[in-house]
Design goal:
The complex is a heterodimer. By secondary structure, chain A is of the alpha+beta class. Helix content of chain A is 51%, strand content 16%. The longest helix of chain A has 34 residues. The chains are: A alpha+beta, B mainly alpha.
């Protein structure tokens, strides 16, 4: 018996060493599989959310928010979600490579596979409206998320550039009062047809497109409604109007105050 | 050397499996695995790491202890030989990381082994020169010392240990394509280094 052989066997006997039980290895493999599946699922959900956010962006509007297409694109990128997506995709690829036998695939193939899986499954999450439900749930249950979204929303508060998002306070015949996302009060002039079409109601969140005429006064050319799901979605569904200023409706002598403009 | 590179059961593979089974029943049987793999693994570790004989033996002891502790985790889709070399590879890497400045490359080894490496590296040239084996072996060691660890290791696995690409892929846990590229670069690096040192074989 060689010296090494003797030493090793002595150490085994002295330390009463035993081979690790088989379940330890089985458990480790199961943990890897579970981690991989979880990473892919989280990746799919995050991709669904990213697609949701991109799908509600009016791309023509981007140059207004960022003084140019690229800066605007940077402004509206959901950095947090994209960062999380990158992390999850890297984690999924790493775990996949740690699984027995998977070292045979090249890093790029594994990474590409993780990205493609996330996109495909993320598309399913988006198409099945699971992304809507998830976003709403995050907004309701996570104050931090709600606050972050509010900060993102405030970037769209650009009356000087023709965008005025906010909450309807009071509706009158030819105008209405609006509190914007920075708590400033505005009197928005709009014709009756526009107000009717938007089904304005007090406390409703809307986006007004038009032109700032003076401090606290805004002339509307279009009004967009908030949609049922997703608090900020209305802000991202804006259709930027070409500079076609609609004349305000002639003011009546005694503007009547109403909670809702009746339909004809 | 009989190895399992295409999942066929060769006598060596079944013998290894039997030895693993017996070692799990009685630790004393593990001695047979040690006796069988000790010379090959010691040579591999010495050439790959360039450690002194004593240090290489330390690494080898740790390798065998780890093999014993992990016997139940031996995946039979690999050959036992590839699996045990993989553990030796990991142990050697760990040792080098922990003792990066302590050991100097010594590359102790048999002259015939080192000389056989150059025979194979030279096979492209179609010229066989008769030189003193001892001198040639010394030159090979000199060049190997200057190569990057990963180049030195893959040359040793391919030309001294006689492993094929699939087995090297299993040992290093790298894709086959990467093994091919690495080997080609290692050969090129060996030739360039020899040229720089004005060593001709």
């Amino acid at each position: 018996m060689s010296k090494i052989s003797q030493n090793v066997l002595d150490k085994i006997k002295e330390g009463d060493l035993k081979p690790k039980p088989r379940w330890v290895f089985v458990f480790w493999n199961v943990m890897l599989i579970v981690s991989f599946v979880l990473a892919i699922l989280v990746g799919a959900l995050v991709t669904g959310l990213v697609i949701l956010k991109f799908s509600h962006l009016e791309w023509g509007f981007i140059r207004v928010i960022g003084d140019g297409v690229l800066p605007g694109f940077w402004e509206v990128l959901p950095i947090m979600w994209l960062g999380l997506l990158l992390l999850v995709v890297l984690m999924a690829s790493q775990v996949f490579e740690m699984m027995e036998g998977n070292y045979k695939y090249s890093h790029w193939i594994v990474l590409g596979g993780a990205v493609v899986s996330s996109l495909v499954l993320g598309g399913v999450v988006y198409a099945s409206r699971l992304a809507d439900v998830l976003e709403n749930s995050l907004r309701v249950n996570l104050n931090v998320y709600e606050e972050m979204e509010a900060m993102t929303e405030r970037r769209w508060n650009l009356p000087e550039k023709g965008l005025l998002p906010g909450k309807v306070v009071e509706i009158r015949a030819g105008d209405f009062e609006l509190e914007d996302l920075r708590d400033n009060d505005w009197v928005v002039t709009a014709n009756l047809e526009m107000i009717r079409r938007a089904h304005l109601q007090p406390n409703q969140m809307i986006m007004v497109i038009g032109e700032k005429t003076s401090d606290g006064e805004f002339l509307a050319t279009d009004i967009k409604e908030k949609r049922a799901m997703g608090g900020t979605r209305m802000l991202k569904k804006i259709v930027i109007q070409k500079k076609k200023i609609v004349s305000p409706v002639p003011k009546v002598d005694e503007p009547e105050t109403t909670s809702e403009v009746k339909k004809p | 050397m009989t190895k399992k590179s295409d999942n066929t059961i060769t006598p060596q593979v079944s013998a290894d499996l039997e030895l693993v089974r017996l070692s799990l029943i009685d630790a004393n049987n593990f001695g047979q695995i040690i006796e069988k793999y000790e010379p090959k693994l010691l040579r591999y570790i010495s050439y790959f790491t360039g450690l002194s004989h004593d240090s290489a033996e330390d690494v080898l002891q740790e390798t065998f202890l780890k093999v014993f502790r992990n016997l139940n985790g031996f995946n039979q889709s690999l050959s036992f030989s590839s699996w045990i070399y993989r553990i030796a590879h990991n142990e050697a890497i760990n040792y080098l990381k922990k003792n990066s400045s302590k050991d100097v490359l010594s590359l102790e080894g048999d002259d015939d082994e080192a000389a056989s490496l150059i025979d194979i590296l030279q096979s492209d040239d179609d010229v066989v020169k008769t030189v003193d084996k001892h001198q040639m072996a010394e030159k090979v060691r000199q060049v190997l010392k200057l190569l990057r660890d990963e180049y030195r290791e893959i040359l040793v696995l391919k030309y001294l240990e006689d492993y094929d690409y699939i087995e090297i892929s299993d040992i290093l846990k790298k894709p086959l394509g990467t093994v091919g590229v690495l080997l080609s670069r290692a050969k090129e690096s060996f030739k360039q280094t020899a040229k720089k040192l004005q060593i001709s074989f």
